[in-house]
Amino acid sequence: MLPNFLLPEQVVRQNGSGPTLEIGDSAGDVISLTLGIHRTIEQQSLDLSISGSVDGENWGDKPLAAFPQKFYCGVYSLIVDLSDRPDVRFLRVDWKVSRWGRGEPTPLFGMYVFAEAVGQGVMGAAG
Description:
By secondary structure, the protein is mainly β.
Protein backbone atom coordinates (compact mmCIF):
# COMPACT_ATOMS: atom_id res chain seq x y z
CA MET A 1 0.00 0.00 0.00
CA LEU A 2 1.25 3.45 -0.89
CA PRO A 3 1.88 5.79 2.05
CA ASN A 4 -0.34 8.84 1.88
CA PHE A 5 2.35 11.45 2.49
CA LEU A 6 5.57 11.25 0.49
CA LEU A 7 6.57 14.42 2.31
CA PRO A 8 4.75 15.34 5.54
CA GLU A 9 3.88 19.00 6.03
CA GLN A 10 7.02 20.98 6.84
CA VAL A 11 8.90 24.20 6.23
CA VAL A 12 11.94 23.97 3.94
CA ARG A 13 14.63 26.63 3.72
CA GLN A 14 17.27 24.81 1.68
CA ASN A 15 17.62 22.10 -0.96
CA GLY A 16 16.83 18.62 0.26
CA SER A 17 15.20 15.23 -0.07
CA GLY A 18 12.35 13.58 1.76
CA PRO A 19 12.36 10.12 3.27
CA THR A 20 12.67 6.99 1.16
CA LEU A 21 9.26 5.33 1.02
CA GLU A 22 8.40 1.84 -0.18
CA ILE A 23 5.32 1.80 -2.42
CA GLY A 24 4.50 -1.90 -1.97
CA ASP A 25 1.40 -3.03 -3.90
CA SER A 26 1.31 0.27 -5.81
CA ALA A 27 4.36 -0.68 -7.90
CA GLY A 28 3.41 -0.36 -11.57
CA ASP A 29 0.31 1.73 -10.78
CA VAL A 30 -0.70 5.20 -11.82
CA ILE A 31 -0.11 7.56 -8.91
CA SER A 32 -1.69 10.94 -8.29
CA LEU A 33 0.62 13.40 -6.51
CA THR A 34 -0.57 16.55 -4.79
CA LEU A 35 1.86 19.31 -3.86
CA GLY A 36 0.47 21.73 -1.32
CA ILE A 37 2.29 25.01 -0.70
CA HIS A 38 0.75 26.83 2.26
CA ARG A 39 3.51 29.28 3.13
CA THR A 40 5.86 31.31 0.97
CA ILE A 41 7.62 34.64 0.66
CA GLU A 42 8.11 36.78 -2.43
CA GLN A 43 10.91 36.42 -4.95
CA GLN A 44 11.65 32.73 -4.59
CA SER A 45 11.13 29.50 -6.50
CA LEU A 46 10.64 25.81 -5.80
CA ASP A 47 11.64 22.95 -8.10
CA LEU A 48 10.22 19.65 -6.87
CA SER A 49 10.72 16.23 -8.43
CA ILE A 50 9.92 12.60 -7.62
CA SER A 51 12.71 10.05 -7.88
CA GLY A 52 12.23 6.30 -8.13
CA SER A 53 14.46 3.41 -7.11
CA VAL A 54 14.46 -0.37 -7.42
CA ASP A 55 16.43 -0.93 -4.22
CA GLY A 56 16.02 2.28 -2.17
CA GLU A 57 19.70 3.14 -2.63
CA ASN A 58 20.28 3.98 -6.32
CA TRP A 59 18.09 6.77 -7.67
CA GLY A 60 19.41 7.17 -11.22
CA ASP A 61 20.22 10.38 -13.06
CA LYS A 62 16.70 11.50 -13.97
CA PRO A 63 13.59 11.85 -11.82
CA LEU A 64 10.40 9.94 -12.65
CA ALA A 65 8.43 13.19 -12.73
CA ALA A 66 8.69 16.86 -11.83
CA PHE A 67 6.21 19.60 -11.06
CA PRO A 68 6.59 22.79 -13.09
CA GLN A 69 8.55 25.42 -11.13
CA LYS A 70 6.43 27.00 -8.39
CA PHE A 71 6.46 30.48 -6.87
CA TYR A 72 3.12 30.83 -5.04
CA CYS A 73 0.89 29.14 -2.48
CA GLY A 74 -1.59 26.68 -3.93
CA VAL A 75 -2.47 23.04 -4.45
CA TYR A 76 -1.00 21.41 -7.55
CA SER A 77 -1.55 17.92 -9.00
CA LEU A 78 0.59 15.62 -11.11
CA ILE A 79 -0.09 12.12 -12.47
CA VAL A 80 2.82 9.66 -12.55
CA ASP A 81 2.35 6.48 -14.59
CA LEU A 82 4.63 3.74 -13.26
CA SER A 83 3.26 1.05 -15.59
CA ASP A 84 6.38 1.28 -17.75
CA ARG A 85 8.57 1.09 -14.61
CA PRO A 86 7.09 -1.84 -12.61
CA ASP A 87 10.52 -2.46 -11.04
CA VAL A 88 10.35 0.84 -9.10
CA ARG A 89 9.64 -0.03 -5.46
CA PHE A 90 10.72 3.17 -3.70
CA LEU A 91 9.88 6.87 -4.13
CA ARG A 92 11.52 10.00 -2.79
CA VAL A 93 10.72 13.71 -3.07
CA ASP A 94 13.64 15.98 -3.99
CA TRP A 95 13.52 19.78 -4.02
CA LYS A 96 15.62 22.80 -4.83
CA VAL A 97 14.77 26.27 -3.57
CA SER A 98 16.09 29.63 -4.70
CA ARG A 99 15.60 33.23 -3.56
CA TRP A 100 16.59 36.54 -5.14
CA GLY A 101 16.00 40.24 -4.58
CA ARG A 102 16.10 42.26 -1.37
CA GLY A 103 15.60 41.15 2.22
CA GLU A 104 16.33 37.82 3.86
CA PRO A 105 18.35 35.69 1.39
CA THR A 106 17.08 32.34 2.71
CA PRO A 107 14.07 30.81 0.89
CA LEU A 108 11.03 29.62 2.85
CA PHE A 109 8.33 27.23 1.66
CA GLY A 110 5.75 25.51 3.84
CA MET A 111 4.69 22.43 1.87
CA TYR A 112 3.64 18.79 1.71
CA VAL A 113 3.38 16.09 -0.96
CA PHE A 114 0.48 13.62 -0.83
CA ALA A 115 0.39 10.45 -2.94
CA GLU A 116 -2.55 8.28 -3.90
CA ALA A 117 -2.61 5.20 -6.11
CA VAL A 118 -5.14 5.67 -8.91
CA GLY A 119 -4.79 2.12 -10.25
CA GLN A 120 -3.46 0.29 -13.27
CA GLY A 121 -4.45 1.00 -16.85
CA VAL A 122 -6.17 4.28 -16.06
CA MET A 123 -3.95 6.31 -18.37
CA GLY A 124 -4.62 4.01 -21.32
CA ALA A 125 -8.37 4.19 -20.79
CA ALA A 126 -8.27 7.98 -20.61
CA GLY A 127 -6.29 8.35 -23.82
